[in-house]
């Protein structure tokens, strides 16, 4: 197996190896019932998914899981090494792998009432609210194919003893690369988007672009959250010779990890943002981070700072950000996550601009769903399901909510 190090001493497993070669823990899991219903809410990949089978996170390609179950002839055989367990199960390929997720008539709300396992992705989130959890009498396991399970009411999952697992580490490099791209080239410091649009229009006026283009060297960059992604962003910024790299996180980095990137912890968030030229958001969405970047916090940002948020849209107040960009208090806002997904056509973040007509680096939610990432999170989701089916303990790092309690420390201080 291939394991890369993590700043907090954990490990990130790449999914090239057999899921059964991992060490097991003593956590106990319920054995899956026979004839269980697995409900997967994915997005429709349409033409692209038919042409590109590596688009695994789509209703068409079903994370590769449907094929796998079919291949097993609805009779699942364990790893063949130490267990050979046959579980009869039916997966409802087609109807129950669906993108229809909003409203009482959606497939999601119709089928959640008797599903035992729910598979979702953050890219097309099936919002599992407290009300839906109360109706989901059979639900035992939620698998997030990806990272970030805030679309599930985690407190209600704790109360109802529904486990929530995600494929930790599966797309953290993909996101960290997107963050650095956003900071550096694509949009913000270098004012790239207006420069390219000028070229497409047939115009040429260097001064209109250069008046708002800067080097990253010598700037101060700070991350809100220094976990797997936040730390990787800092690692990737080291060669750019920033003036300083700061982080705000209630969990301090181990000294050696902080030292190796030269990261300085700032214990007060207002204090940190007031020093930063660029702020990047890399913490999960939970009660303590919803609306964290609001009018009040933005007042403490340096005038003309850049903000990159690939964590979750709702961590930033939509209208406060739009106002700050429009006034020029922020020079740019970039990210791929939205408070509602898919974002409505008239969402202000689609078109907001700074006073010079630039500074908008918004894209659809895709930074963590590169084809490389999809291979990893599809394999990870399958491995979680497989473990569940044969009653094998799960990777501890993947467990957000265990039986009746939070296992992850990343979703707020408790
Ligand atoms: P992680 O669990 O490794 O790190 C999260 C860090 O945030 C932890 O160190 C935690 O202590 C810190 N944190 C939590 N609450 C905080 C607060 N109030 N203030 C400051 N720090 C706080 O998670 P990872 O893998 O780094 O992912 C972070 C988030 O990024 C995910 O939860 C998800 O929402 C988002 N994400 C987005 C993707 C995309 O495609 N745009 C893909 C993957 C993740």
Task: Give a verbal description of the structure.
- This protein has helices at 46-51, 65-71, 107-111, 130-135, 154-159, 172-186, 192-201, 206-210, 228-237, 255-261, 269-275, 295-299, 318-327, 348-351, 371-390, and strands at 2-5, 11-14, 38-41, 75-76, 87-88, 97-98, 117-120, 141-144, 163-166, 220-224, 244-248, 263-265, 278-281, 305-309, 330-335, 360-362, 399-401.
- A seven-stranded parallel beta sheet has the order 12-11-10-13-14-15-16, with helices on both faces. It has a six-stranded mixed beta sheet with strand order 6-3-7-8-9-17. Strands 1-2 form a two-stranded antiparallel ribbon.
- With 414 residues, it is an alpha/beta fold.
- The protein starts with a strand and ends in a 13-residue tail after the last strand.
- Helix 6 (172-186) packs across helix 9.
- The relative contact order is 0.15.
- The longest helix has 20 residues, at 371-390.
- It is globular and about 65 Å long.
- 1,4-dihydronicotinamide adenine dinucleotide binds at residues 146-148, 171-172, 175, 224-230, 248-251, 282-285, 288-289, 310-312, 336-337, 365, 367-368, 410, 412.
- The stretches of 5 or more residues where confidence is low (pLDDT under 50) are 1-5, 10-33, 73-95
Distinct bound molecules = 1,4-dihydronicotinamide adenine dinucleotide
Amino-to-carboxy terminus distance: 34 Å
Rg value? 22 Å
What is the 3D form? globular
Q: What portion of residues belong to β-strands?
A: 15-25%
Helix content: 25-40%
Number of strands: 17
Mean pLDDT: 85
Family: Belongs to the D-isomer specific 2-hydroxyacid dehydrogenase family. FDH subfamily.
Domain D-isomer specific 2-hydroxyacid dehydrogenase catalytic: 96-391
EC number: 1.17.1.9
Enzyme class: oxidoreductase
